[in-house]
Specification:
Layout lengths: L6 H6 L1 E4 L3 E4 L9 H8 L3 E6 L1 H14 L13 E5 L4 E7 L5 H11 L8 E5 L2 H6 L4 H21 L4 E5 L18 H14 L12 E3 L1 H9 L11 H20 L15 H15 L11 H23 L5 E4 L4 H17 L1 E3 L8 H21 L5 H29 L4 H21 L9 H17 L6 H6 L2 H21 L2 H7 L5 H5 L6 H9 L3 H17 L14 H23 L4 H24 L2 H4 L1 E3 H8 L1 H11 L1 E2 L4 E4 L5 H30 L4 H29 L1
Parallel strand pairs: 3-5, 3-6, 6-7, 7-8
Antiparallel strand pairs: 1-2, 4-5, 9-13, 10-11, 12-13
Length: 729
């Protein structure tokens, strides 16, 4: 732990992930776009001063501002660059040696009457080695010259960002005869002198010349690809320029996936109040020793555990205590863990208690393996590989399919449209996310899946609860009620279709206050519309499937006995063959996708093909329907908590990176963080279940009072949120 300043990691250490992706030691580097670079450097003057290697860095840097720039002009002269649209001025000054001329130029910037550059990037040595044939006298003179320049650079560092770039190693075998005297031994001696002399008079001062030593590490890996043995290949120069951009811009732009050089965000008023609440709970923590625990004791005990867990969440992803790394996708990092968990899942196979289609154990198993695959997808960064992305989209759709299937089945069979049922479901879905919104200072829509299942639950409830209420018991007496229900479903489908092609109408609905506070992200509801539209039909498909399945079951047209095929042998075989072909056809189509936007347009209509194919493959053979994986089912019971907790205590920087508890040991780090992550998710699931029994009572009058308290709580949140926004402005 090196305090709040992670710039030291960025400037001095790191490793390559693959061939071209540079990973700083345990902090995340943002890849700046041209527009972001311009916004950061607006009205800034940047100066690169030095030799041909600094000129290379200059060109790579200005290409981040304007990619159209050509490397042309006098190589041994000054080169100006200006972006008038953002008032950015970047100059390269040709000073190949650390001598009196360079000192005079730097001294001119220290005079009060002269406008100082905002960023100064300097470095030189190889020309001194070359001109003086690598003599020891040249090294001695270099030390004298840099000693005279160091106080001037340190003075500039009080008002500007000053970087001294250490000399990269050379590839001696490729050097021309005129450069043979430039050896790595000589370069190391010059670098050692620069490091020792710079900042020697201001060791305890905050204003220091920043030593840019990371380029040496990058060069050690890539210099053999150099064209002449002296100058770095373009990819390495671009990496150095991006590091420079991160060092300066991260504290200004505050990108989520750029944790290097970012200060810890200040606590908001709501976070401070939450901290006080949990601290008070810890002080009042009861000792639970007896089996008969009172409601108050259970409530306090749950909040105490929750307080400790939320402290861990905050430390992992808001404080700068633990470090973060960028994701890097390789096929092996995704597919090897997938094979491993599948083997484990098959190993823990048990008989089901019941053999109905989509019984509880089977749906828990389904949720479990899907959640594990999604977790591996996120930590491996597999979203960059389109075929994997398209298959993961089907898994998310399958969750929503189960939402439609499960809630429709409950309301259709039970006919229970009471407030208690609604409150129980809403509490279990939203409790953790509401707490995280407060503690982690994130909008509700940030945890997009929970708003998605919450809204769809309310849509299912409204569709079935609105007059006339049609349930199975009523429909059994008169078949016409079945047509009435189908009419309701058709109306629902029509509304979905209309909203999916009318972005304006959709945004108007969710832009009304206070709905807008829940569904806005970055100041608008576009992200919510995109997420909703992406799987707009699959909940309807789940409801329709439940209706057809329960109708067939009621008329005894399917066989659900242990070991029996779902239909007659002939029909079962035909359906099984069609299902396997459909499943594989969808996978082939998804794997051949070339454009994410076009495939996302088709996804809502065709994802149901693979979902239905999987259900039939899993349920038609009786022996397959009669077993389940207890390993996957265990994870399925806490799948919602796993999905939400991963944002902050397994991944990092709001899912953009990976949490680093143990730096330098990537595999061991993943094992430890995964163990803690799964334990925390399981604990939160238990806390949610315990609190649901207390906060949502069955007695209607008590429940009404609790609902008034909840309304008051959210009103308070809205009030404090408005205060925060006002103070922010």
């Amino acid at each position: 732990f090196k305090g709040d300043d992670t710039c030291e990691y960025l400037l001095s250490s790191g490793r390559f992930l693959g061939e071209k992706v540079w990973q700083p030691h345990s902090c995340m580097m943002h890849k700046y776009k041209n527009s972001e670079a311009k916004n950061c450097l607006i009205d800034k003057h940047i100066v690169f001063i030095g030799d041909s290697r600094i000129r290379q860095l200059f060109y790579s840097f200005i290409k981040l501002i304007n990619p159209q720039v050509k490397e042309e002009g006098n190589k041994h002269g000054n080169i100006p660059f200006e972006d008038k649209s953002a008032s950015i001025k970047v100059d390269f000054l040709w000073y190949p040696e650390v001598n009196g001329s360079m000192r005079q130029r730097i001294k001119s910037w220290t005079e009060s009457s002269v406008a100082k550059p905002h960023i100064i990037v300097a470095g030189a040595a190889t020309w001194s080695i070359k001109i003086h044939n690598g003599s020891n006298e040249a090294l001695t003179q270099y030390k004298i010259n840099i000693t005279s320049i160091a106080p001037l650079l340190e003075k500039l560092a009080k008002s500007s960002d000053v970087y001294w770039v250490l000399q990269d190693p050379v590839y001696e075998d490729m050097l021309s005869d005129s450069r043979k005297m430039i050896t790595n031994e000589k370069i190391d001696a010059y670098n050692e002198a620069a490091v020792r002399i710079l900042n020697s008079s201001s060791r305890n001062s905050k204003a220091k010349v920043k030593v840019f030593s990371v380029s040496k590490l990058i060069a050690q890996e890539t210099i053999m690809k150099s064209a002449d043995g002296l100058h770095l290949p373009e990819s390495s120069r671009d990496t150095n320029a991006m590091i420079l951009m991160n060092v300066y811009c991260n504290k200004i732009m505050k990108p989520i996936d750029g944790s290097c050089c970012q200060p810890q965000p200040p606590l908001t008023l709501i976070q401070k109040l939450a901290f006080c609440f949990f601290t008070f709970g810890e002080e009042k923590k009861p000792a639970i020793n007896t089996p008969n625990v009172s409601t108050l004791e259970m409530l306090l005990h749950s909040f105490c555990k929750l307080g400790l867990i939320m402290t861990y969440f905050y430390l992992c992803d808001r404080a700068n205590l633990f470090m973060k790394e960028n994701k890097f996708y390789t096929h092996s990092s995704f597919f090897i863990p997938i094979v491993y968990i599948l083997v484990l899942g098959v190993f823990y196979t048990e008989n089901t208690k019941e053999t109905k289609v989509l019984n509880r154990e089977q749906t828990d198993e389904w949720k479990g393996w899907m959640q594990l695959v999604i977790l591996i997808y996120h930590i491996s960064g597999a979203s960059t590989f389109l075929p994997v992305y398209m298959h993961i989209r089907v898994l998310v759709a399958a969750y929503l399919f189960q939402t439609g299937y499960g809630h429709f089945s409950y309301f259709w069979i039970k006919g229970d449209f009471g407030v208690y049922r609604v409150c129980q479901v809403l509490f279990r879905l939203n409790f953790l996310v509401v707490v995280l919104c407060i503690v982690m200072d994130r909008p509700y829509q940030f945890y997009y899946f929970v708003p998605l299942v919450t809204v769809w639950f309310m849509i299912i409830y409204a569709t079935l609860a609105i007059w006339p209420q049609i349930v199975q018991k009523k429909a059994n007496g008169n078949c016409l009620w079945h047509f009435g229900l189908l009419l309701k479903l058709i109306c629902l489908l029509t509304c979905i279709y209309f909203l999916s092609y009318s972005q304006g109408a959709f945004e108007k609905i969710f832009s009304f206050w206070p709905l807008s506070k829940c569904f806005e992200l970055n100041g608008n509801v576009y992200e919510w519309w995109f997420r909703w539209k992406l799987d707009r039909y699959v909940v309807f498909h789940g409801m329709l499937f439940a209706f057809i399945y329960l109708a067939l079951q009621k008329r005894q047209m399917i066989s659900e006995g242990k070991g029996d095929p779902l239909f007659s042998n002939r029909v079962s075989n035909v359906l099984l063959f069609i299902s396997i072909v459909s499943f594989l056809t969808y996978s082939i189509w998804a794997s051949s996708c070339k454009n994410k936007t076009e495939c996302n347009e088709l996804h809502p209509s065709v994802s149901v093909v693979q979902i239905l194919a999987f259900i039939l493959i899993r349920n038609i053979p009786g022996y397959v329907r009669s077993v389940y994986s207890s390993f996957f089912a265990w994870f399925g019971k806490i799948s919602l908590e796993l999905f939400i907790c991963q944002y902050h205590i397994w991944l990092a920087a709001d899912t953009k990176g990976i949490l680093v508890l143990i730096p330098g040991y990537p595999m061991f780090n993943v094992l430890v963080s995964t163990f803690i992550f799964v334990c925390v998710a399981h604990e939160i699931s238990q806390i949610t279940n315990d609190l649901a029994q207390i906060v949502v009572p069955k007695d209607n009058s008590t429940l009404l009072k609790r609902l008034l308290c909840v309304a008051g709580f959210f009103s308070g949140l809205l009030f404090f949120s408005a205060m925060q926004e006002q103070s922010g402005h």
